[in-house]
Specification:
The complex is a heterodimer. Chain A is mostly helical. In chain A, helix 1 runs antiparallel to helix 10. Helix content of chain A is 74%, strand content 3%. Chain A is built from 11 helices and 2 strands; from the N terminus they run ααααββααααααα. Chain B has 2 domains: 212 residues, Response regulator (Rossmann fold), CATH 3.40.50; 129 residues, Response regulator (Rossmann fold). Helices cover 42% and strands 18% of the residues of chain B. The chains are: A mainly alpha, B alpha/beta. The interface between A and B is large, with 47 and 41 residues. Chain A: It comes from Hansschlegelia quercus. Chain A: One of its GO terms (biological process) is amino acid transport. Chain A: It is a multi-pass membrane protein.
């Protein structure tokens, strides 16, 4: 194991971590704030990819504008979903799980009916299909874009949660919904907005993953598991998801670079199971009443 | 129903009787077949592919192209004057459903033959049922071999046919050092075993071998290893969505197709369209069929198919063409069996037994003449090497001069030789239905 390939693996690890994190961000918000186990998260990611595809293919919107546009579109879908379905199920976690799973199937088949089951293609500016070489290390430009978007979103979320009045309300509702409500916070509205926000974040992830990998009705399934892992290991808080993604991304990269991908997956899942055996509440557990 | 002693005894007795005399409630396949033929009803065939789920991308195309082929056959007068009626089921990308639907097609629909499966896993899931009923499966895609059943006919290339030309061609053109990348399941591993044999013969050197979990889209670590190993070319058996991610990230990570192309057994027209033309351009594929093959039969096939109501996905590719051929292999086999033994006596197994040596001539086969091997019932074909162009189509850069024989046990010579009646070991023992 020489130093330069180890450094390379660490740099790649940061990129893998950012991919895992951006997949998990929306779920962190939804699970952390509203306590909803959103099984349709993968399909919201898929919708983000298809929104970008649609904007690009039918309206000719440039790719970089598709990313925020996907946020808005999927956030609206999330809003409709929360108002139409999820809000009736807040006190019934098992029903939410089943209902969102049903939603995921509906979204998947709906997209298949509209767009067909063949893979779609997102065009990006030429500059994104090259790489940056720093002598010993090399990384693709598009991975840097994902990293930058992730960092930006994490910073924005931190500002939102810790520096705004809305953030104080969200954290109050997270800690104790009834108490917060008795102080005049409209808890229903907070849930609605956080769900929409979480869905929108999934949309951003989707428009990025569509370029990195593929746009398919079934693409969400491969991201939802790792997103859940990050949220559970992190404990449902923003800092927890950041830390969990950072550690697993680095482990994945280092193990995959020095052994192989299959073994890296195996060892990560084993470590996560062992970790959860001793710390089931996750890295940074939230204070307050859980529903 | 209450479980009184009397009716418990009665049901048990009935069940025992049914078990002892299966013909009472399960008509033999010959009986079922004769009955449908006498009434002048259409010939039913089962199309067992996934229309939903992860496998839908390739398998939906298979269903469409088979419907197209049977329409074509029916328009030309059917088989012996009887039209073919495809019974379409959705296997939902779930191996349990494949197996269940197989039983449904054989027992309830009483189909004459099954066309189905794309992955080896689904094939292995349904074969026990197919063999138990002595039925017939047309498996219309490439696979790894190492099977010798008396109930399958395969119209795609085996692992030994694919890479035979591709590896020496790439070694000669780009250099000796090769890096193998594949999806982590049985077909890539078996294909790579074959490729290693050809690599050794061509004087090449294996500098790395990596397998990616099925469906994974993270190729960062593998591409890092490839960067360190500096191969002359990459040999890929990555399948499905992963394959598209692999080609995209190859370019995004700054690899140049001119100096280190990917030679693939899987990246066909459907994949190059989905990844965007500039990610596929310059890479190589070995397959018996390309949409760009320049012959009148293929032009007719491509134009006819894309214009028909089944051509909505906008392309033809090797897997579709192999599936298309299987319909004509079935037609020829059924006609031959009917001529030999009378149509009322034909069983699915009899169709298979009469299919050895069947030739699909240039006038019908878009890839050119093929024929079914008389011993192992796989297909003699000419693999071709294509290079992907900027528009996602392939330019043929090399075509095999002679047909290549299918050899399911090419890397396991100790297992024996696959004959018509079973796998014949060196000591003369015959094993039937080996999967």
């Amino acid at each position: 194991m020489d130093v330069s390939s180890f450094l390379n693996a660490l740099i790649l690890g940061v990129s893998i971590a950012s991919i895992w994190l951006i997949a998990a961000l929306g779920l962190t918000i939804i699970y952390g704030a509203a306590g909803v186990i959103n099984m349709a998260h993968g399909e919201l990611i898929m919708l983000g990819a298809y929104s970008s595809y649609m904007l690009q293919f039918y309206l000719g919107v440039p790719y970089l504008l598709c990313i925020p546009a996907s946020f808005v579109i999927v956030a609206l879908v999330g809003l409709a979903l929360e108002r139409g379905l999820i809000r009736y199920l807040y006190h019934r976690p098992l029903d939410t799980l089943l209902a969102t799973y049903g939603v995921s199937l509906v979204l998947m088949q709906g997209v298949r009916l509209i767009f067909g089951s063949d893979p779609k293609y997102l065009a990006v500016p030429e500059i994104f299909s090259s790489n940056v070489s720093l002598g010993f290390a090399s990384i693709s430009t598009f991975r840097l874009v994902i990293l930058a978007v992730t960092a930006l979103l994490v910073f924005a979320l931190w500002l939102l949660f810790y520096k705004t009045r809305f953030g104080v309300q969200v954290r109050a509702v997270m800690q104790n919904k009834e108490m917060a409500a008795s102080f005049g916070i409209n808890a229903g509205r907070v849930y609605m907005l956080t769900f929409a926000l979480g869905a929108g974040l999934a949309g951003v992830a989707g428009s990025l993953f569509g370029v990195l990998a593929i746009v398919l009705p079934t693409m969400g399934a491969s991201y939802v598991v790792q997103a859940f892992l990050m949220v559970v290991v992190g404990g449902g808080s923003l800092a927890g998801s950041v830390a969990a993604s950072g550690v697993t991304g680095e482990l994945q990269s280092v193990f995959a670079s020095f052994t192989n991908d299959t073994f890296a997956r195996f060892i990560i899942f084993v470590l996560i199971v062992v970790f959860l055996r001793f710390r089931p509440q996750g890295l940074f557990a939230q204070a307050g009443a859980r529903r | 129903m209450q479980f009184t002693r009397r009716n418990l005894l009665r049901t048990t007795a009935a069940a025992t009787a049914a078990l002892a005399t299966p013909h009472l409630w399960l008509p033999g396949s010959s009986e079922a077949w004769g009955a449908t033929m006498k009434k002048g009803e259409p010939i039913k065939v089962g199309l067992l592919f996934s229309l939903t789920g992860a496998l839908a991308v390739p398998e939906e195309d298979s269903t469409l192209v088979l419907q197209y082929a049977f329409d074509e056959i029916n328009k030309a007068g059917g088989i012996n004057g009887v039209p073919v009626q495809p019974v379409i089921v959705d296997a939902k990308s779930d191996f349990a459903v494949y197996s269940e639907k197989t039983k449904e097609l054989i027992l309830r629909e009483k189909v004459t033959a099954l066309f189905g499966c794309y992955t080896s896993a689904s094939r292995k899931a349904i074969l026990p049922t197919v063999m138990q009923r002595d039925h017939l499966l047309y498996y219309p895609t490439c696979y790894e071999g190492a099977e010798c059943t008396q109930n399958t006919i395969c119209t795609g290339p085996l692992a030994n046919q694919h890479s035979q030309d591709l590896i020496p061609f790439m070694v000669e053109k780009f250099g000796k050092k090769v890096f193998f990348v594949g999806s982590n399941y049985v077909w890539p591993k078996e294909s790579n075993k074959n490729a290693k044999v050809w690599l050794e013969k061509a004087g090449g050197e294996l500098v790395g071998e990596e397998y990616i979990p099925l469906g994974s889209s993270e190729f960062g670590p593998v591409l890092g290893k490839i960067r360190d190993a500096k191969p002359s070319f990459i040999f890929s058996t990555v399948v499905g969505a992963s394959d598209i991610a692999f080609h995209k990230q190859f370019k995004q990570e700054g690899f140049k197709v001119d100096s280190m192309p990917i030679a693939s057994l899987t990246t066909g027209e459907i994949e190059t369209r989905a990844m965007g033309a500039d990610f596929g351009a310059g890479h190589f594929l070995s397959a018996p069929y390309f949409q760009s093959l320049d012959n009148p039969t293929n032009q007719k096939f491509v134009e006819g198919f894309l214009k028909s109501k089944y051509g909505k996905n906008g392309t033809t590719h090797y897997n579709m063409e192999e599936t298309y051929l299987s319909a004509y292999v079935f037609k020829a086999g059924l006609e031959k069996a009917a001529a030999a033994m009378g149509i009322e006596n034909v069983t699915p197994r009899a169709i298979r037994d009469h299919s050895g040596g069947i030739r699909i001539e240039d006038a019908v086969s878009p890839e050119g003449l093929i024929w079914i091997d008389e011993n192992n019932f796989n297909t003699w074909l000419k693999p071709k090497i294509g290079q992907c162009q900027g528009d996602g189509t392939f330019k043929i850069v090399k075509a095999a001069e002679k047909h290549v024989a299918p050899d399911p046990y090419s890397i396991y010579p100790d297992a024996g030789v696959c004959t018509k009646d079973g796998l014949k070991a060196a000591d003369g023992k015959l094993r039937k239905s080996v999967i």
